[in-house]
Amino acid sequence: MPPGAKTRSFASLAEGEIARRSFTVREDEMASFAEVSGDHNPLHCDEAFARSRGYPGRVVYGALLVAKISQLIGMELPGRNALWSGLDIQFVSPLFIGQKADIEATIVRVSAAVHALELSLRIACQGQPIARGKAMVTVGRDD
Amino acid sequence: MDNTVILEQLTGIFREVFDDDNLVVTPELSAKDVPDWDSVNHIRLVVSIETEFKLRFTVEEIEKLQNVGDLVKLLQPKAGGGQS
């Protein structure tokens, strides 16, 4: 059974706090994402096609990177009380299957008036930016 | 800060949040006048105003607001400067 989401109270969240995780996208995750999304674009599914376009291999789905952001927000920062309400993201470089990537979310704004966080997001591979963006997350009341 | 200047600054923020370059922001404007003024955009709006004006609102202050005019009155002393 997967681990449970962290429970963070709104009061415990402060600007400047950073959450980090590392991940490596596997073949089976690519296959599962193709199945779930229905996106069988050959850039993501066909090794020869990806190479013909100048890439060393199949490119990881951008939305799969978003799934990793979802994991960080939903499980860790702020975790159980999160209600994700907005995302602005740019994919700046491709990530390839089997490459280790690092994801980082920084709280850049805490608004007590609307119980919301603004997160700055960064995904990098060996220090090179893969994606960057911002997310808005509402934090629900504690039970 | 001059109320006209506040309204001008708010106009830029409203247009950005609601993605409408033609939105006319008047003191009488309220959520019922803007079709996209839903709960998510309300949060974006409040956070954007806090960021732009470099201030913090309380829950009570936000809940009392009826229209943009109320918002300008709330911002006026927080943003500094005299009435005009």
Please give a structural write-up.
The complex is a heterodimer of chains A (143) and B (84). Helices cover 24% and strands 36% of the residues of chain A. Chain A is of the alpha+beta class and 143 residues long. Chain A has a single domain (10-139), classed as Thiol Ester Dehydrase, Chain A, CATH 3.10.129. Chain A has a 5-stranded antiparallel sheet with strand order 1-3-4-5-2, with helices on one face. The longest helix of chain A is centred in the middle third of the chain and has 14 residues, at 62-75. Chain A is elongated. By secondary structure, chain B is mostly helical. Chain B has a single domain, classed as Non-ribosomal Peptide Synthetase Peptidyl Carrier Protein, Chain A (Orthogonal Bundle). Chain B is built from 4 helices and no strands. Chain B has helices at residues 3-17, 39-53, 59-64, 68-79. In chain B, helix 1 crosses helix 2.
Brief description of this entry?
Chain A is an alpha+beta fold and 143 residues long.
